[in-house]
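Lab notes, practical 5.
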Amino acid sequence: MNKEDVLQQVIDSGSLPTLSTVASKLISLTAKEDTTIFDITKLIAQDISLSAKVLKVVNSSFYNFPNEVGSIQQAVAILGTNAVRSLVLSFSFLSMEHANEPGGFSYEEFWERSLAAAVSAKLLMSLVCDDDTEEVFTVSLLANLGKLILATAFPERYSAIFSQAATGEKSLYLLEEEEIGADHTYIGREAAQHWHFPESLTLPILYHHDPDSYEGSDPAMKRNIEIIYLAGLLANILYSGKPIDYHRPFREQAKKRFALDDEKIDDLLQRVNVEVAQAAEFFGIKIGGTPSIPELLQEANIELSLLNMSYEQMNRELVKAKIQLEKLTTELEEKNTYLESIANLDGLTEVYNHRYFQNFLEKELNRALRRDLELSLILCDIDFFKKFNDFHGHQVGDFILREVCRACGEQIREYDLLARYGGEEFVFVLP
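Output from the prediction step:
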């Protein structure tokens, strides 16, 4: 079969995923020049569950806004239509459900790897330029949409192809063309066009495995395709089980295409797994704890070195590896402890956040009741802060919030609690 025949068979089989009603209408709406914030707000507000999810992500560290966003209208006004469209598409894509084929294509791993690529693309974009990161996040999330469609349309054949590609003898891309007649980049692009996606989203899906094959003259498009290509390499380092195979190509391509230096690359490799885990929580995806890329590479290098050793050498190295793994375990525990601690802190002021305050207050109330002790609670805010913030700007306002917290923190005892209640409101718990 040629590509067109495969596409027609996919369409006839009903394997093209269905976008949510809101996502589908939003694509059409954002394509119109006369669309207003009110139009978009009205559309999204029709789906209460989606509205809640969007507001949850907007108010998370995914965006790090200093003040809480309380409505969809406010979210659209602050983020812009592209960012809101990206969020809605992300939730629509990540909510598509399928049953796994035994021993073959794993849908859970597919969602996880797609999200990892999207987060990687957003991080890379922030290193490369100051442009909006939302579009590359969305395209990277959707880049391998064709795999999902082929796995649904040809479940047994695609599971066999997927298993064969895992041996490394041939790439999945080539096996798809040989065994099915069309690769996932072509099918994914056609599906995106079927949904009436703009070209800025469809072309990167087609070229993300081979950015040099893009012959267009749009520099922004070329840059986005290259970023999505690099993001795919990063996701492969994390999830392919062969991190060494993708590590060197990623470093070489990052330097060649965007002149990223070793310091920036190393920093990115060190923190990308934490960013992916946080994004998964925001988007409601359950993933296991993934070690950092340096840790994955270290373990992979140990395994490679063991393959070429004598029995005696192997014993010595196994002892070293055991010690190293114990060290890594300790470091991982320390990192987990650190992550747990920062999860309890407000990102701007670095005092405790509202969630921690609720837990702390409950414990202290129970303790005070058990032991018949006194407990004081102070709720306060900064007078005229909004007027001050509007006049002097958010950066100065943020500085004031931090200074207030610093000054207040010096006045309380070690076992007292100062927490940010919300906006310019703070709370003290004084046992």
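Observations recorded by the TA: Strands lie at 376-381, 417-422, 425-430. DSSP finds 21 helices and three strands in the chain.
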